[in-house]
Amino acid sequence: MPIVLGALASILIGCSDFLGRYGTRRSNAITATSGAMLGGAVVGVTLLLVVPGVFAVRDVALGAASGLVVGIALALLYEAMSISSAAVAGPLVALGAALIPLVWDITRGNTPSGLVAVGVLVAIASLLLVMYSPALRGTLRRGVGLSAVAAVLFGVSFAMVGEAGDDSGAWAPAGQRVVALVVMLTLATARRVPRVPSQPLLGPMLISGACGSLAIVAFALGTQQGSLAAVAVSASMFPAVSATLAAVFDEDTLRWWQMIGILGVVAGISLMALG
Question: Would you list the DSSP string of the chain?
């Protein structure tokens, strides 16, 4: 069940990222992310009424701390996908979201199996294949740089939420989404850009945020039932979803080696989850 919840989170994150990219290309990263966080905060708080959980200050604090970084991480990811490609940005962020919780587990004394080690190597090699471009310069190179920073932030955020208590339910995700909304509204005010996108972009961004909240709740429930590393790596398969949606609906170009690389990343993360 924990791996299933992680996989569900990956599907929802992929949908959220695709809609976020759509909004960023027609607005700006901060405004689009603020709109997504508005929808995410509403859904996150509402889920407290549905998902059983015991309130604890520590769990809400962990969620709030992760919210300080996840809003910025999303803005960086959306900007990276808007100026480069979901096929490049997604796998890099996915590896960060998978590897940092894995390293966190190792530091806590949980040694990975041989299968996990093989999965890490496969995923990294595949990532290099996805990122390869004969003309990796200009906006594409900048997109890779932004994605790398977002990858670290997402990984840290996942690790924080995974530290919440086994009976905390949706309290940590709700805290994360509310604080992330405050962070993004503050950034929008400081940068003097619209706090939320106008129609017709507001609807897609609210849905993006709703998908993100549902994803982090699924992730949190998974970690409450299983290991942080296993759920994190299964939740990191979202590049296959976002890149496929981008190719089908947004006319993103996937080179043959990038297709192989995406499959390799998914295979590597799957090995890590099985391990």
Answer: -HHHHHHHHHHHHHHHHHHHHHHHHHS-HHHHHHHHHHHHHHHHHHHTTTS-----HHHHHHHHHHHHHHHHHHHHHHHHHHHS-HHHHHHHHHHHHHHHHHHHHHHTT-PPPHHHHHHHHHHHHHHHHHH--TT--THHHHHHHHHHHHHHHHHHHHHHHHTS-TT-TTHHHHHHHHHHHHHHHHHHHHHT--SSPPTTTHHHHHHHHHHHHHHHHHHHHHHHHS-HHHHHHHHTTHHHHHHHHHHHHS-----HHHHHHHHHHHHHHHHHHH-
Domain span holding position 100 = 2-274
Q: How many domains does the chain have?
A: 1
pLDDT (mean) for 136-140 = 54
Between 13-17, 73-77, 219-223, 247-251, the lowest mean confidence (pLDDT) is in 247-251
* pLDDT at residue 102 greater than cutoff 90: no
